[in-house]
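Reviewer comment 2.1 asked that we show a complete input and output for one of the modelled complexes. We chose the adenosine monophosphate case, as it is the one discussed in the main text.
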Amino acid sequence: MWSIYTALVFALVAASRFTPVYVLEFCQSTDPDCHDDTASNSHRSPHTVKSRWNVSVSNLMQDLGQFRVSCKKLIEAFPLDEVDGNFVHAVKNCIFSESTPTPLKGPLRLAAVSKDVIEGILDLDVAVTQSDDFLQYASGGRLMLGSVPLAHRYGGHQFGYWAGQLGDGRAHFLGQYSNRKGEIWELQVKGSGKTPYSRSGDGRAVIRSSVREFLCSEAMHFLGVPTSRAASLIVSEEPVLRDQFYNGNVKTERGAVVLRLAKSWFRIGSLEILAQSGEIDLLRKLLDFVINEHFPSISSSDPDKYLVFYSVVVNETAHLIAQWMSVGFAHGVCNTDNFSLLSITIDYGPFGFMESYNPNFVPNTSDDEGRYSIGAQASVGLFNLEKLLGALSPVLTQKQQKEAKVILKGYVGIYQMRFHQMFKEKLGLLGEEEEDSYIIAFLLKMMEDTQSDFTMTFRQLSEVSVLQLYNRSFTQMWALDNLSLHKHFSDWLKMYLLRVSRQENDTDLDHQNRMKNVNPRYVLRNWMAESAIRKAEMNDFSEVELLHNILSSPFVTQQTAEEAGYAARPPLWANRLKVSCSS
Ligand code: AMP
Ligand code: MG
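Response of the prediction step:
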């Protein structure tokens, strides 16, 4: 058995296409602590994620009229587009264009709201979201105090090719909000009308894609994956035409707006457009701004500051993608304009959570070549970081450019290390033993062969005792039951149980609890989102709310979720679902 698997297993680690391992310069120690989660300032492991839902917050704002944002910092830092008017044009020598949202037509309805964001980030009493004023403010129909709405100019490599000017074609930055905790968040409405970057688009977003963005960004947060957040989802009666599967079948859908938040919305493409058009002073200005605002550990007087910035982004991007893999998340459109400089997940489109384990899983039906399959995400991250290096090159010396290339070579090793750590945690393995990679890859290979459900296999492994595993008593454990059909399952089990038995001072209960804290029972499967969308399109938002609630505690078994079948074998119709780029 060992020999049969040895060869394939080493080709498999991380379900990615990498083989070389390099060590990143800034992480010189081989000490595992060097690679601990704590090395990352913005990334938390799922165990540390706590819902703030139960925390009672006092002195929340009851009056939206008091809610104030500021655009000063960005407006004072950068020149604005000199061309006046909200029409599509080639924009030069600026980072933002002024652009006013176009109010949605018809009566507006609040389809969903995140109490966690409204109260925990925006310091507002969630009761204010029930007002007409909120519908206006949160959809771009009325501007909050201090708001000077802006559309951001960026470019990007899309599906491998330079696509030129892209920019916020249907999103408006409304302002920064400084909350009581001293955090600064940037508010954006998405689906709020045309901007100078709308190209041939209508500036709108439809209900289905907005429900998906709302639910997934909140779900990712509670899974412990760095992400933009969603405060609210507002739907309208405004007709929006979409050819959902690009087959000539144009349908009238309805416009919706998500009020979304991030510490920063700058992307790799924000820098690329400046480098591509030779606006090097502005490139330097944007980099200095991003470093000063978001990378406090980098000194503004450090002559290597851009290099250090690059090394942090390389490190954190590797970490982010490993986190995506650990929850089976495929972004779907990993273009450089969708890759954040803060290494958070942004721009939810045709994403998908993998069901049957398959490294070739492609969530986006428009992605014919599978460029952004789940197993390719790590190598696409490398491609995107190469493009970031290209964008930084004009501000790096020859020597720094060489060093940056060495840093980039370290990406693969960092990614593999992060992946290895996370999957070890998913299996409840403590310390480091020689065969750990083998145990992980062997399991993944069996899951692939048996098409076992990614989420539930790991979850059910967390829910069985060692004795149950030993006896293979998997009653009602549909995913494990499926996996155990593999002809080498007993061999793997023996190896795994032996490995676990060597963990001193580790009780069965501790082992299970550790695993349950990192292996979610509920993820936003396409069929779950689809069912909620169908109802939302008929103004029934109950399932959006149900999903939002359940996915806010994805590691906790919940009665309502069980009743809804969210941890059960996916329904047969789930296989027929398709998600495209159309949104
Ligand atoms: P995405 O695929 O959502 O990341 O979008 C890629 C680019 O297309 C961005 O510049 C978007 O702002 C723009 N875009 C997408 N949909 C629309 C739309 N309906 N109207 C205007 N611009 C859009
Ligand atoms: Mg985008």
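Residues 166-170, 197-199, 201-204, 333, 337-338, 347, 349 surround adenosine monophosphate (ligand 1) (CB under 6 Å). We note this here for comparison with the apo prediction described in Section 3.2.
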